[in-house]
Design a protein that fits this description.
The chain is of the alpha/beta class. It contains 15 helices and 20 strands. Helices cover 35% and strands 20% of the residues. Strand 3 (60-64) and strand 4 (73-78) form a beta hairpin. Helix 3 crosses helix 4, helix 6 runs parallel beside helix 9 (292-306) and helix 8 (232-238) runs antiparallel to helix 10 (352-365). The protein is elongated.
Length: 503
């Protein structure tokens, strides 16, 4: 999508669609909306009086202008209550109206930046409107050969601003929003892609393209190198599949030699059958997105590098399938991870944490000072938090708090769960250092605490994205399917870290 910021009056812009906005409870529109209302002879005011335009969040009221202004149509998008307005609601409003434009089969439209009257800066408003527009109109259409009408992305977005002084910051915010949205779209494409396309090798190739484009160090370890390094955990999960595993590694250095290195490790199970502990058939096709954590860290590496953030980052993805076969690992097996810890396999469908064990240990080996892992780890987090928030478990409260703040700012919210010692009892093994699954109670916590055995005592936080990585129905800027969750969160975290390291 091409984005441009134009100085001018909304009453003079020629466009197939012009978007203005309204806060809930407003009876007499002002600003750009007021100017359009006056140009249309008080039409918006009359619709407000008749309760046809209410300003409720994400409501889109659309009408034709019949030649009274150069714009062919006007959409009034609701922003909700002014006192509750945030950048997240600006993203939602932008996504809602962009999807309506897409339904009208428009390839371009013009909009004002939402939220200035509620205190959003031009930079934040510009970022929000571009993120919401791009992410709201996203569809995974690679394999659709027909029936795509009204689903193609918007080709051109024009942001209208009457104050010349605000334009530079609006442009900067819009440019940032485009970078972050495109990185999130990369993650969505990977997660939505079918397992016969998005294999471990394919994920490695995509990471390599990101590295080449943005100047990152890149490695993809093959099985022989993993064996040399003692990665018995990842290789154990992989041994039932005909697809070779890969340990994907990206390094970005822009924080200086004295700055700490942030290690982001993403679960990369490109298809999860459950292995010998096979899953039920219902919705098993969705297990193609079990690599959403890995997709997120690749997307985040892209955004961080494109924005040239002054941080040091490692992005690591242990990528493999989890399949049943005569060579597959079994319940009762003992695996030895790269750091020497032994793992009793209780359930082969708790494979993501086993693969992450070697990913985390490798991050420590490569110099990560702080660790964050993202994984579609447990169904328990969906039971606890639904599809609204990501569950967080960690060993360092300052790190967890920094991630919680980044989640609020980015719109990818987290909820922290306790990590008390009593929960560690759930994964104690009689015959190994740790077992890979406890009972059903507190499964999200015990799954997270399993990973603590492989972080080398470093500050660490585990993010269980099982409930937020995939949606069964559309939201304003997240259509059904993969959300790309984690890209915006990690990018925001790095921005804030660069200004004030949490540790």
């Amino acid at each position: 999508m091409q984005t441009k910021v134009t100085v001018g009056s909304v009453t003079e812009i020629a466009s197939p669609l012009l978007v203005v906005n309204l806060f809930e409870g407003v009876v007499q529109p002002t600003g750009a909306t007021g100017a359009i209302d006056a140009a249309l002879g008080g039409l918006i005011s009359r619709l407000i009086a008749q309760n046809e335009v209410t300003g409720k969040l994400n409501e889109v009221a659309l009408f034709h202008t019949l030649g009274r202004i150069p714009a062919e149509r006007v959409a009034v998008v609701g922003l909700g209550k002014k006192e509750e307005f945030t950048a997240e609601k600006a993203r939602q409003a932008a996504g809602s109206v962009a999807r309506r434009a897409q339904q009208l089969k428009l390839d371009r439209f013009a909009t004002i930046a939402h939220g200035g009257q509620a205190g959003l800066s031009p930079f934040v408003a510009g970022q929000a409107v571009v993120e919401g527009t791009l992410l709201g109109t996203y569809r995974y259409l690679r394999f659709k050969t027909e029936g795509n009408e009204g689903k193609q992305p918007i080709a051109e977005l024009t942001i209208i601003e009457h104050d010349q002084a605000k334009v530079p910051r609006l442009q900067e915010g819009a440019a940032k929003g485009q970078i972050i949205a495109e990185a999130t779209i990369l993650a969505r494409d990977l997660s939505n892609g079918p397992g016969n396309l998005v294999t471990p090798t394919y994920m490695a190739e995509q990471a390599g393209q990101v590295a080449e484009r943005y100047g990152l160090d890149y490695t993809a370890l093959a099985p022989e190198e993993m064996r040399h390094l003692g990665m018995g955990a990842l290789l154990g999960v992989a041994q039932g599949s005909a697809q070779e595993p890969r340990l994907i590694f990206l390094r970005y250095r822009a924080g200086g030699e004295q700055a700490k290195t942030l290690g982001f490790v993403g679960k990369g199970i490109t298809f999860d059958s459950g292995g010998i502990s096979i899953k039920p058939g219902n919705k098993m096709e969705e297990m193609k997105h079990d690599m959403s954590g890995g997709a997120a860290v690749i997307g985040a590496a892209m955004a961080i590098a494109a924005l040239k953030l002054p941080v040091n980052v490692l992005a690591i993805v242990p990528a493999t399938e989890n399949m049943p076969s005569g060579s597959a690992y079994k319940p009762g097996d003992i695996l030895t991870a790269m750091n020497g810890k032994t793992i009793e396999v209780v359930n082969t469908d708790a494979e993501g944490r086993i693969a992450l064990a070697d990913g985390l240990a490798y991050a420590v080996r490569e110099g990560a000072d702080v660790l964050v892992d993202l994984a579609t780890l447990t169904g328990g987090v969906v039971t606890a938090l639904g599809h609204v928030a990501t569950g967080a478990v960690g060993n360092d409260q300052r790190l967890c708090q920094a991630l919680l703040r980044a989640g609020e700012e980015s719109g990818e919210r987290l909820w922290q769960l306790p990590a008390w010692d009593e929960y560690k009892e759930l994964i104690k093994s009689d015959i190994a250092d740790v077992k890979n699954s406890g009972d059903r109670g507190a499964s999200t916590i015990s799954g997270g605490l399993f990973l603590a055995n492989f972080v080398g005592g470093k500050p660490w936080c585990h993010l269980d994205i099982a409930g937020t990585a995939w949606l069964d129905s559309d939201r304003p800027y997240s259509p059904k399917g993969a959300t790309g969750v984690g890209v915006r969160l990690l990018t925001q975290f790095c921005e804030e870290w660069a200004q004030n390291p949490a540790l």
